[in-house]
Amino acid sequence: MIDSRNLNELHPRVRALAEVFLDACKAAGVDVLVTSTYRDHEAQDALYAKGRTAPGAKVTNSKGGQSLHNFRVAFDVVPRVDGKLLWTTSGATGKLWENIGALGEYVGLEWGGRWKTFPDYPHFQFTGGLSLADFQAGETLEEK
Fold it and tell me: Within a domain: residue 67?
């Protein structure tokens, strides 16, 4: 089971954007930790099971093969303040997440915090205009 935190596991175009994003965060005085890049189907299925058939809260609506993490074009982060990871998205922490999301969007990433159904604040992705169905059909960023 693979759930990587390594930027080298991302598609090269996405890795380059992730690096610019992380530099922008650092320049803005925001410390973020990359928590996930590439996930194989087994790791994605294990996350999908949370809150369903495994203990914990639901963290994704995507099974293996249905997440852009499976195609190396998505990554997750979490802010760190005084060494503490801040997963909550309300109050002052919500404003921090908004700043992080804006930095990602500024460098050309799509931020999951803007999604209307099931907002995913830690999630950033770059698809180059391809859909999930395109990736599932074997298309890659180089083809578009």
Answer: no
11 found inside a domain = yes
In a domain, 2, yes or no: no
Give residue-wise pLDDT tens across range 34-69: 999 999 999 999 999 999 999 999 989 999 999 999
Closest by CA position to 76, among listed 97, 55, 46: 97
Question: Distance between CA 107 and CA 104 in Å, rounded?
Answer: 5
Q: How many separate domains does the chain show?
A: 1
pLDDT in tens, 114-138: 999 989 999 999 999 999 999 999 9
Q: Full-prediction pTM beyond 0.85?
A: yes
Angle of the 91-106 helix axis to the 12-27 helix axis, nearest 10: 130
